[in-house]
């Protein structure tokens, strides 16, 4: 496939198209390992691969030390990028990612369960130690999703005392559908079988399962619902 695509690119006059084909089928970005950072790939047959040269569709930058990324294949990455600083932990089970970005500060944790389909999603975990993101199985994310597990910068009163709320993880329950351009802020909790509406902002722990939440801040607008990935007939 790599040889075929390389030859095909000689006859394509459009630079952008050539670049996209090479990124997908030919070029893979090598991963630089240092300071005890590790990647472990768990294969379906029980075997493992440690510290692979590259991962198709995923670029990884270790900006610190002692971070561990565990991937349970099969996983489909496309235009995804991870930045890990000191002592970060990433566990991802079989899922599909079409533009996942993880920007992780020291001692942060990301856990994504199986059978998730995540579009373009930016997970921001800067400037605060020990924050976490948990995504349970069977979740579907649209595009333009922003997740923040921290306020990122200190907020002080007029006497100089920090008044930021304490750090808190973001938890997304089983079988949750998050629509386009939604934002989840630190402390957000999404209950199972729920839908987060277009451009909604969630900053608290939502309680009722099988509900639709919308608005800024997000509130329950409909309950006793369920959803599926099929088409509307």
**Count of strand segments:** 23
Q: Biggest sheet, strands in spatial order?
A: 2-1-4-7-10-13-16-19
CATH topology heading of the largest domain = UDP N-Acetylglucosamine Acyltransferase, domain 1
Supply the CATH class of the largest domain.
Answer: Mainly Beta
In CATH terms, what is the architecture of the largest domain?
3 Solenoid
Determine the CATH superfamily of the largest domain: Hexapeptide repeat proteins
Helix content: under 10%
**Low-pLDDT sequence parts:** 1-11
**What pattern of helices and strands is seen along the backbone?**
HHEEEEEEEEEEEEEEEEEEEEEEE
State the end-to-end distance: 38 Å
**Total domains, how many?**
2
- Which oligomeric state applies? single chain
Summarize model confidence as the mean pLDDT: 87
Strand content: 25-35%
């Amino acid at each position: 496939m790599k040889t075929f695509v390389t030859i095909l690119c000689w006859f394509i006059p459009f630079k952008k198209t050539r670049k996209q084909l090479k990124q997908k089928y030919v070029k893979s970005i090598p991963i630089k390992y240092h300071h005890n950072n590790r990647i472990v790939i768990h294969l379906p047959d029980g075997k493992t691969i440690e510290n692979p040269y590259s991962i198709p569709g995923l670029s990884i930058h270790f900006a610190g030390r002692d971070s561990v990324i565990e991937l349970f294949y099969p996983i489909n990455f496309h235009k995804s990028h991870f930045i890990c600083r000191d002592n970060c932990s990433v566990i991802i089970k079989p899922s599909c990612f079409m533009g996942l970005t993880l920007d992780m500060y020291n001692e942060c944790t990301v856990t994504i369960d199986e059978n998730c389909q995540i579009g373009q999603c930016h997970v921001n975990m800067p400037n605060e130690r020990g924050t976490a993101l948990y995504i349970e199985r069977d979740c579907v994310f649209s595009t333009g999703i922003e997740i923040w597990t921290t306020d990122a910068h200190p907020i002080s009163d007029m006497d100089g005392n920090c008044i930021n709320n304490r750090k808190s993880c973001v938890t997304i329950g089983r079988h949750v559908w998050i629509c386009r351009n939604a934002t989840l802020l630190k402390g957000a909790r999404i209950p199972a079988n729920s839908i987060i509406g277009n451009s909604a902002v969630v900053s608290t722990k939502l309680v009722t399962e099988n509900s639709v939440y919308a608005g800024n801040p997000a509130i329950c607008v409909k309950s006793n619902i369920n959803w599926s990935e099929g088409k509307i007939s």
